[in-house]
Amino acid sequence: MAAAPVWSVDPRTGKQREQVAVEATAQEVDAAVRAAHAARGALADRAVRAAFLRTAADRLEAARDPLVEAADAETALGPVRLTGELARTCYQLRAFADIVDEGAFIDVIIDHPDDTATPPVPDLRRFKVPLGVVAVYSASNFPFAFSVAGGDTASALGAGCPVVVKAHPDHPALSELVARVLRDAAAEHGVPAGVVGLVHGFEAGLELIRHPLVAAAGFTGSVRGGRALFDAAAARPAPIPFHGELGSLNPVLVTEAAAAERAEAIGAGLAGSMTLGVGQFCVKPGLVLAPTGAAGDRLVKSLTDAVGDTGPGVLLDHRMRDNFVAGVAERAGLEDVESPVAPGAGGEHTVSAGFLTVPAHRLAAEGAHDLLLEECFGPVTVVARYEDESEATAVLSRLPGNLSATVHLSEAEAAGEGRGAELLAALTPLAGRVLVNAWPTGVAVAPAQHHGGPYPATTSTSTSVGGTAIERWMRPVAYQNTPEALLPPELRDDNPLGLPRRFNGRLER
Amino acid sequence: MAAAPVWSVDPRTGKQREQVAVEATAQEVDAAVRAAHAARGALADRAVRAAFLRTAADRLEAARDPLVEAADAETALGPVRLTGELARTCYQLRAFADIVDEGAFIDVIIDHPDDTATPPVPDLRRFKVPLGVVAVYSASNFPFAFSVAGGDTASALGAGCPVVVKAHPDHPALSELVARVLRDAAAEHGVPAGVVGLVHGFEAGLELIRHPLVAAAGFTGSVRGGRALFDAAAARPAPIPFHGELGSLNPVLVTEAAAAERAEAIGAGLAGSMTLGVGQFCVKPGLVLAPTGAAGDRLVKSLTDAVGDTGPGVLLDHRMRDNFVAGVAERAGLEDVESPVAPGAGGEHTVSAGFLTVPAHRLAAEGAHDLLLEECFGPVTVVARYEDESEATAVLSRLPGNLSATVHLSEAEAAGEGRGAELLAALTPLAGRVLVNAWPTGVAVAPAQHHGGPYPATTSTSTSVGGTAIERWMRPVAYQNTPEALLPPELRDDNPLGLPRRFNGRLER
């Protein structure tokens, strides 16, 4: 059987641009994993990892114009957005380099012997070591920031783990280009090219997750695809951690008082957030609880005006476009659902943004309207109008896990009057990030960021964005009774590397 | 159908002592989980949690004599060991109370807005919140320290998570007693009794792991039982973290120089470690790589003498006894395997400790002898005699994950001469704890402890003993753009609770 070709496709026309590669065979996946595994030693030195990450950022920036052009040709996300996303990606690589330099993530804990403990404590010194080869499953919607050189790769390399990336079929040519840049950066620091493997093909992705030398995986994508890989990771003879970001509705609650105070601003802000990147963000607000009555009507009117002004957009591929068109049609056809701005097909290759409304009580109990509580990828949101706040919280309590949950409060509520704190507490179980008077799109790269949440937002308690993402690729090891002469420098009493640590119980920074 | 009775059994006679309870029905499991879930709010205050844990320790100590008596009647572990184990359990409860007081595990990270970042960083404040109800699966071999009031329960309560414990069938009466002590301690601090649920029965254990309100699980036990529960946790509509400690061979490598230097001491130390608690420790050294030749012969001789002097012992139950007898017979029957002290059946209810020897090359490649690389619960170990060190490391490289890996070095090797550091590096991928010139039995409760390791040692990268065990039951949440008035005190700039944290990138302690 001939190897299946991998085509680069123009989403603006649906036409094949060029054949980029062929799908990887089981043998090729095995070779990529073995090459990555062999590169572990070259990443053992933290200084090398940090320098490699910084060089990768420098080289990606140097190649900006051809990379953005290649990305736009395959994703239609436009040069402005893609230039910004590349800048974010480089910022992220450098942020992880800084984290590697600081070394807090190694989590050094040293206990001297203590005969007063029950039972007595011997000399124990613990730190974290890299897990091994990490499989990275790229997302379609962020061809730079959640793809070959994205957060999973940056954090894994920072942790000392080589990666094998399963390229997303929506931007295979860009994936090859970026992988080449990363390998050139590696070579500059004496790290073998195998440190960043790249494979194409659905079957190759399954081979990868099942490979005995793959020690962990990161994934950003759909619930269906992510769950299949999660299941495969769990079914291995030796299961491995699978950090998947699968899907999220990102509910927004607008209080009666907030709507009364600034209905127009909220409506316009919502329109901007839900149509950003043609609605292809994992943190797109997909369900908005807004009050019935005049203030809520003003919000809907403002949303109607702003979304109505949005031109047609191109989705990342034609399958997504077909799913969007079918998904919004099915939702719009439910009883009591209205479409103030009808979402759906635009031209032959485009879609139109829109939104639906529904009385919130329709969502308060199991039924056909539960479809509205499932993520619909693309520029659409559902505005559920509630009669009173208990109706709104009843809907919230039915939601599965989310990446984000947002509340819009009035000035007085934000200042502590009324139920602001209570609502915040009610949103916390729903999501990994809770926002007040803001919109969830735009996920900052920062130490305190948490881009994760209860299932299906993520399959673990970890984050895929922000400083703590590096923790996913490490495991602790404790050394007992080990002579000074044999200790790695990280675990020596005199702390030659100047690492933050816990020393005989006390935190030292 | 009548509810299945739960019997307390005397392992010294195999006779039923009394009926303790009946196996929990699905409805009873549901009620226990709901009661635990309802108790979450009472655990929200860290001060209450710490006080509750300390009172639990006080009350367990106050009830020491009847508890030890009850434990001995069901486990035959003897009052000395059990008194020590109870002391350890109380120490552990108080250690977690101290950890709760300090609050580092909440992992506060605060970022003020930063417009110079790419993209700009908004106000972000992250900490960790309790996951929810934790299912705890008790172990047979530590009726106090890894059971109802053991490390999983102590760390979960410390994290703010109520527990429902699945009692181990080898000590159901003790489980009921200990649960009552914990509930009395809870009541003293206004925490509802449901905060510590207890259910009996195999089916109840499966119901528990599948319950939608159960948010995570801790397990200590066999590979078969643990894997079944892990699989059930992964197969849930919303999978949950399953922290299971399943099985471990705990390899020991004795270098030629170490054997030459102190063969007798090593043989005697090994005998003590492998027969401790009638060989029923999860960190029992189950495979020892010792050199051929005179020094190794002296080691075997010393082991022969010491193990030969060990009297018969009672295992935790008769099923274990039967498995031990069959397991050692099967292993002893393999080609080239010798039994200098034959392990096996003792009297009608007891077993005799022993050990087997085999040429290491028999273990270097797949074959019938792989049985010797599987854990055999009870007082037996396998001494594999190697011709040269490469033969020894070839065997090590074939091992699955372990809780511990040990190397015995000569004085010169420990001082940095020869291959000590190299051997330490070779053992690190095998285990979560690496020991030098020590024995793995005896797992100290300490900040730097790591009691976990690559699968099947554990099903996650976490530990079930030591301070960081509390991390298993938490998930991060980030608050974005949240007004000061609505922030939990943990996340306020002025740090009213005095928590260690990362503030605008800097570690503060």
Automatic annotation (TrEMBL), chains A, B:
It comes from the Bacteria. The keyword Thylakoid does not apply. Residues 486-509 are annotated as: Disordered. This is Aldehyde dehydrogenase (NADP(+)). It comes from Streptomyces anandii. CDD domains: ALDH_KGSADH. InterPro entries: Ald_DH/histidinol_DH (IPR016161), Ald_DH_C (IPR016163), Ald_DH_N (IPR016162), Aldehyde_DH_dom (IPR015590), Aldehyde_DH_Superfamily (IPR050740), ALDH_KGSADH (IPR044151). Keywords: Oxidoreductase. The keyword Oxidoreductase applies. It holds the Pfam family Aldedh. Residues 8-446 form the Aldehyde dehydrogenase domain.
